[in-house]
Write a structure and sequence with these properties.
The structure is a homodimer. With about 800 residues, chain A is of the alpha+beta class. Chain A is built from 19 helices and 34 strands. In chain A, the strands form 8 sheets. Chain A has an 11-stranded antiparallel beta sheet with strand order 1-2-3-11-12-13-14-21-18-17-16. The two termini of chain A are about 45 Å apart. At the A-B interface, α13 of A face α13 of B.
């Protein structure tokens, strides 16, 4: 993985890959992807090939396809949506004299790629020897602009290392790039084989534009390119455009010591409304802006944006450089996923790959927005704005399901439900609570009254209405929510899922509170006192099952009475279980795919005593297999809270390394944004112990053994807070003036700017490490210092062991 | 429905239809279908057109198609199976002078069709006036032979009513008849568009044969025809055969008063093993036998078979002629479905239509075999032989699901699971208990030791093993069966479904008992004392949930705590509910599609007290919507047992008229064999109160108000018993010697041949009629005498009412 001449190289501010391994391209195309939340470009080589899975995505741009059912039923969605690989503008092909530059041929003497978290660019240096022995060096850098939303740019430099060489550059816009379909459904494959229908093509000078639309979903997109070429005088160029291809060709003789440098500016846009001429004009205008800013200007803007970001959101881990890199890598990608989405969804994979069909799920609100709320609050607001924009679809879906309020989709690109398996889709109504929770969290953290009035109240009201119609008061008065699915995907259609009921309880109360705060808005949505008090009543009598015999909360009614999964009989290669066991068997047994009750203990920690948390955590540790990437981060948070600091550290590492170590063997399809965000959560809510209920910001920080220091920065109500955690003390400091009351282990501390406030950390309890299912314990991770200390300790103990062993022989 | 000049006509031994209504052809093609359980022919007109849905079926002959899943999962079946419309031999086209005989043109002066339950033939008489005014009379009769399994035959007679006429007869074998597909899946449609691939065609003299195979399932079929023609001397014939068509053409001048009579003999066969020449030989041999027997011989054999059948299985209802007709109609079709299946399944629709893709379900064992066990025991044995033949597939399926024993398919033609929606398919493991129950019932009723040793023990052992691996002992020791689906399809994946647990309990005990009886066989299947005592222990501690607060059994854990369905808000046109409400909503509420707990009270009546039965019946009456045809018959049984005799009669009528009155609006796709059989059950187990546990045959007969007499015959351990029920007494008589101990209201009665034994019937309790969901009460049905009596009573009461009303004015 970090062999000296091949693979990732550790660096605090960069993701660096050394060496060329064509079989690893798919993985690194995801990890090296660039995105601003609107445009996404996978980290393919500029020459176009070799490549794993090319991909250029525009957030929200999808094609529809029929969803097939061998046995259909009422309310099943008829259409699926799949993110489309749009016109590829990354391609710059090169002919070196008469040989195509293709690293599969000849020899690649050096090859290095760097994703720079501070410059926000992907750089690459390759020295290539052609089959006939010509040597050239290529240096490229590219960016998807955070400051100019519709713009991406590539700088391509190539120089001969020996003799004079003729270079022919072909810079393309290529639509309908052939990709092998991953689906087994021929109709889906057909829909995605060549998803773009050409509508317009133009070219002139160094500029070209292509406009396409999708056949079924009726969306239109445009891509345009312009170029600046820095080359010797012999330069000859032509430009041409046909339906699915626009190409600038530049031929030039470059002397030894000379260099050909091409800057390619790209503009992208899409719309469901605008005409082809309007869309063409839109991308050409974006392009003109970019050209005017210029390559250096774009670089400078990008750097400035990221300087601001890291100043208020950086996370530092002193004592584990590789984890430091992974955490910044994760936060950088979370930023890329959300920065400029602007009322579009943040998909589960961001814009880094076609996984999950490009759909957004509940984990965006639960994990990604949890990080963004404190790292880049405006992007969390924007993502909730997307949910607000889809309210009409969610209300219609609720009506279709016989419910009031809004039923948000389990998976979607445009807001319409695309889940074809309702027990793990539509029945997972907790997505509504996740949205409400994200609204409440954002309001707690931002005090953004305008957002509350414009979006927040309506989202809270409509989600609360859903719960009231979904549950019912039984004869005893208790409010039950039957037949729904919680976060754990190895259970489904259960009664009184504790997570769901607690989140619904909070949702109902938050909605009532918001209506009390904004009575005029509430009235506009028809909310009256009868309705809010019905919400409060339901919340107050919400069923929260508890198993008195075992002294733990069952995940849902009856759960703790189910058969145990036989982990001893489950071979290691039978994970993830859902690929090797039927749902029916998983559902009826005590096996947990991902944190469910444990997530409830994080997000609704107020509903559990410390003793319950400790017992529940142990109980579910023994039954949770983490076949989902949405588990380790939450387990880290609760492990840290309960006092299992080393275990928490292992889980933090699992969440953070999910994609760099390809722990789920599917990074080729894109990064796991939820897991990357949950690594941030594991640091801030786990080791920082950060909790934010109402206006209160609480910390209970604890350093895992072996680290020297953890520090993190976060935004909270216009303030920027720096928290530094050391073994025995924590320091809180505001970075930009003012003062803020926070809680440190339950005590109020007023934090100002200067040197900050330092407070002692009480010692953690010493607890036996809980056990996980056989073979499913997280990989033990130890910071460098601890590894060193332990090695020394083991040497000592080894001596003792040997002595003991000698005794019987004496 | 029984208008004088159009529609069904009441007759005790016939289904008779008068008049021509082209829009009704689809309905009557199903009700007039002929079958012997091996060959099925829908009741299309001989001329081929007009037609609704032509269909000729061979039991077990199917085509495969891929089952599509938008979201697949482990263990989902990949291939579906669909019954194929095979080569159509029913067609005899006629040219009358120069006009095709097509009843859509010209005028049909008279048209009558008769399905004769005693002759086992379908007769038809049509007088047709051609567009140019030529008048002809057609008389046809056809049969699918009960005695010659591979044979069908048609007698076609046509006579001119005015002048001499030239007739041209074209008698066809037609393969790949075009039918509109009903599926939404293009791949299924393609697979079934022209399912037969031609392999061989021959013709000579009056004989022809076609051999085809299916493209995917690799099954081969052959059809052959031969003819006898009785015609004037001018007859000219030709015969020819091409890939998908063989045709005998006969042209003849028939003088006024003369007649052209064609007898068409048909032979059918299929095989997954035999070659085309072997299969051709097989059907030609069958044909030679039929020709040698001759038309009159076939008629005589058919009549003889049916004489025997009715002598031991007839059901008589004195006082309700239409119901009498419907009951014989139903029993005749149940006979047709099962008579000569011989180790093939009995599909849900028999061989009367393409509904349910031609699949067999659990209702065959639960309802159809319940009737056949006592009406034609050998056919029940044969149908269980089919299950036995599929044991290897069921064992492999159990392994795939991580279970021991055998997991029989929810729906199948060849024994492999074809259900594409596991919560209502694979999870409905009670199919195994239904098979075990049918085995036990057949053994109780037949004492067939050979069957027990050859099939019974193995079926019981493998189904018992499934239950033991599917359930588990929880910490308290109780044996739970979690996450399965009971009969009610508006619930799914529940814990401790009472029906399932009780049937599993019986299955476990029956298996242990059978192993004790046949220790050598048990040992051959590896059963030892440890295993049988594990079965008995699990059965003894089986969880049977009971709601103490309400004093009723919940259908499954938690059921009685679920929200009530709002029947008041459910419009009448929103039934069946599953077409208008999502599964998730149905599953989590107290709404019942079909008898579930009530079916448990029938099949496991020993597990409930009389008081529990009465309370449970009332409770579930109020929540059962009968969107399934598999409900009314069972509700009739329990209504009768509890004492609601009028309600029981209403339900009996609903079960019996399901297809004649097209109550589910889908009779075009075939008859509901389960419902037709359950009408028999409603009479015998309902009003007869017949129960058969172990060797004991019990009766508690009660006559519904308004009938004069119910009588039924049944086979029991080589005896043929006649039971006659009158208002105050019942008479039991053996029809063929010997003597038999039965129970009459709990008292042993020894029945011999002569005049029988007569015993008094205690008066029924007088109970308030339970209520059903709004609008879902069964149609009230009153026997003729009762209608008459009531009308008289109402006149009296009306007088009284008027008097009372007058009083205030006085």
């Amino acid at each position: 993985m970090t062999t000296p001449d091949q693979g990732y190289v550790c660096h605090p501010w960069e993701l660096r890959w050394r060496g060329l391994d064509v079989t690893q391209l798919e993985r690194t195309e995801s990890t090296f992807a660039l995105s601003n939340g609107h445009i996404g470009m996978r980290g393919t080589l500029e020459e176009g090939e070799p490549r794993g899975l090319p991909g250029t995505y525009l957030n929200g741009f999808y094609e529809e396809h029929p969803l097939p059912y061998a046995e259909g039923a009422y309310g099943y969605p008829e259409s699926g949506q799949t993110v489309v690989n749009v016109t590829d503008g990354k391609i710059i092909r090169v002919l070196v004299q008469d040989e195509p530059l293709d690293v599969r041929y000849g020899e690649t003497a050096t090859h290095e790629r760097v994703l720079d978290f501070r410059s926000g660019t992907l750089r690459r240096t390759t020295e290539w020897h052609s089959p006939s022995g010509r040597r050239v060096r290529i240096h490229t850098e590219r960016l998807v602009s955070f400051t100019q939303r519709a713009v991406a740019a590539i700088r391509y430099e190539i120089e001969p290392l020996d003799d004079d060489v003729q270079f022919v550059i072909q810079s393309d816009l290529l639509a309908n790039e052939p990709i092998e379909p991953e689906t087994g459904d021929p109709r889906v494959a057909v829909a995605l084989e060549a998803p773009l229908v050409a509508e317009f093509a133009s070219s002139k000078d160094y500029r070209a534009a292509l406009v396409h639309r999708t056949a079924r979903s009726g969306l239109r997109m445009a891509a345009a390119m312009d170029h600046e070429i820095d080359a010797p005088d012999s330069l000859e160029t032509t430009i041409e455009a046909e339906e699915d291809l626009a190409r600038l060709t530049a031929a030039v003789d470059v002397p030894r010591g000379g260099c050909l440098a091409v800057t390619k500016f790209l503009g992208y846009g899409w719309s469901s409304q605008r005409s082809a001429p309007a869309l063409r004009a839109q991308v050409e205008a974006a392009l003109a802006g970019a050209v005017q800013t210029g390559w250096q200007g774009l670089l400078a803007e990008q750097q400035g944006f990221l300087d601001d970001f890291w100043a208020s959101a950086d996370v530092e881990i002193d004592g584990d450089p590789e984890l430091q890199q992974a955490l910044r890598f994760g936060l950088f990608h979370v930023l890329q996923a959300g920065a400029r989405g602007e009322s579009r969804a943040i998909p589960g994979k961001g814009l880094t790959g076609p996984g999950y069909d490009g759909h957004a799920f509940w984990d965006t609100e639960t994990f990604v927005l949890q990080a963004l709320t404190y790292a880049l609050p405006g992007s969390a607001r924007d993502a909730l704005g997307w949910r607000h924009a889809t309210l009409d679809k969610a209300r219609a879906r609720a009506r279709q399901l016989g419910l009031r309020g809004a039923a948000f989709p389990w998976r979607s690109i445009n807001g319409a439900e695309c889940s074809a398996y309702w027990p793990a889709g539509t029945a997972a109504f907790h997505v509504g609570a996740a949205i409400a929770d994200a609204v409440t969290r954002y309001l707690n953290a931002s005090d953004d009254i305008e957002f509350e009035r414009q979006y927040g109240v309506e989202l809270l009201v409509e989600t609360a209405r859903l719960w009231l119609s979904l549950g019912h008061h039984e004869a005893t008065g208790e409010f039950r929510i039957d037949g729904v699915t919680g976060p754990d995907e190895y259970s489904a259609v259960s009664d009184n899922n504790v997570y769901t009921n607690l989140m619904a309880q909070q949702n109902l109360r938050s909605a009532a509170d918001a209506c009390d705060r904004q009575p005029d808005i509430a009235a506009a949505f028809g909310v009256d006192g009868t309705e809010t008090s019905a919400w409060r009543t339901a919340a107050d009598v919400m069923v929260i099952p508890y198993d008195e015999r075992l002294g733990v909360h069952p995940q849902a009614d009856e759960f703790t009475r189910y058969a145990e999964w036989s982990f001893a009989d489950t071979p290691a290669d039978h994970y993830p279980l859902m690929l090797n066991y039927p749902y029916f068997d998983l559902y009826r047994k005590q096996v947990v795919k991902q944190a469910d009750l444990v997530l409830a203990m994080h997000l609704r920690g107020d509903a559990f005593s410390d003793e319950q948390k400790a017992r529940n955590f142990d109980y579910y540790e023994a039954r949770t297999v983490r076949d989902s990437s949405l588990s380790a981060g939450t387990q880290a948070v609760l492990a840290a809270e309960v006092g299992h600091l080393r275990l928490a550290y292992d889980y933090l590492a699992e969440a953070a390394f999910i994609d760099l170590h390809d722990l789920h063997h599917n990074v080729r399809n894109g990064l796991h944004m939820g897991s990357l965000a949950s690594a941030w959560i594991a640091v801030v809510a786990g080791f920082g112990g950060m909790r934010n209920r109402g206006g209160e910001l609480r910390f209970s920080p604890r350093l895992p053994p072996g680290l020297d220091r953890i520090a993190f920065r976060m935004c909270f109500r216009h303030a920027h807070l720096l928290v530094e955690v050391r073994e025995a003390e924590a320091t809180y400091r505001l970075l930009d003036g003012g003062s803020l009351d926070i809680y440190h282990f339950g005590d109020v501390v007023t934090v100002g700017e200067k040197d900050g406030v330092t407070a002692p950390i009480p010692p953690a309890p010493s607890l036996p490490r809980p056990s996980q299912p056989a073979g499913r314990a997280p990989i033990r991770r130890e910071p460098e210092r601890r590894r060193r200390d332990r090695a020394a300790g083991e040497r000592e103990r080894d001596g003792a062991v040997q002595e003991t062993r000698k005794a019987p022989q004496a």
